[in-house]
Amino acid sequence: MIIDANDAALVVSKSPEYMESYRPVLDWLTKPLANGILVFGGKLTIELAKVGDFAELMLDLERAGRTRSYTEEELRPELQAITGRCRSNDQHVIALARKSKARTLVTHDKLLTQDF
C-alpha cells in the first residue's frame, strides 16, 4: 500500500470522523493477522517523514517488518519512463507504484488517482 503524503495526517488523525474512515487502512497495516505492507521511497519518504504522527507509524511498521522502501536511485528508471505522462504532480508516487508493484493507493488527489 502507498499512502500519499496529503493523506498521511488523516490516516493517523485522532478525529473520530477520520479514525472511522481510515480504520481499514490502519487495520490492514497493523493487525497481527493482516498482511498489509507500507511502501515508500525517494521523495515520498521525505514527505511522509515530515508528518509527525505518521513518521512514528512508519517507524513502528518498519520495526515490525511491514514496510518496503526504495531509494531514489532504484526509482530513477521508472521516473524516466513516465516523464511527461502524468497529469498529477506526483510522478514520484507513480514511479514507486510501478517499481514496487503496489496496487493500493490511499489518496484524495483525483489526478493522482487517474495516473495510478
Give an overview in words.
The chain is mainly α. The protein contains seven helices and four strands; from the N terminus they run βααβααβααβα. The strands form two sheets. Strands 1-4 form a two-stranded parallel sheet. The longest helix has 15 residues. The mean pLDDT is 96.
Brief descriptors of the model:
116 residues; two-stranded parallel sheet; two-stranded parallel ribbon; globular; 4 strands; mainly alpha; 7 helices; single chain
The number of helical elements comes to 7
Termini Cα gap: 12 Å
Number of strands: 4
Q: In one word, what is the shape? A: globular
Low-confidence stretches: none
Main sheet: strands, sense, barrel: 2 strands, parallel
**What is the topology, as strand order, of the major beta sheet?**
1-4
User: Which strand-content bin applies to the residues?
Assistant: 5-15%
- Name the structural class: mainly alpha
Please provide the ordered H/E string of secondary-structure elements.
Answer: EHHEHHEHHEH
Q: What do the pLDDT scores average to?
A: 96
Radius of gyration: 14 Å
Q: Please estimate the helix content.
A: 55-70%
Topology:
Layout: E1 2-3, H1 5-11, H2 16-30, E2 38-41, H3 42-49, H4 52-63, E3 67-70, H5 72-82, H6 91-100, E4 105-106, H7 110-115
Parallel strand pairs: 1-4, 2-3
Quick structural summary:
By secondary structure, the protein is mainly alpha-helical. The protein has helices at about 5-10, 15-30, 40-50, 50-65, 70-80, 90-100, 110-115, and strands at about 1-5, 40, 65-70, 105.
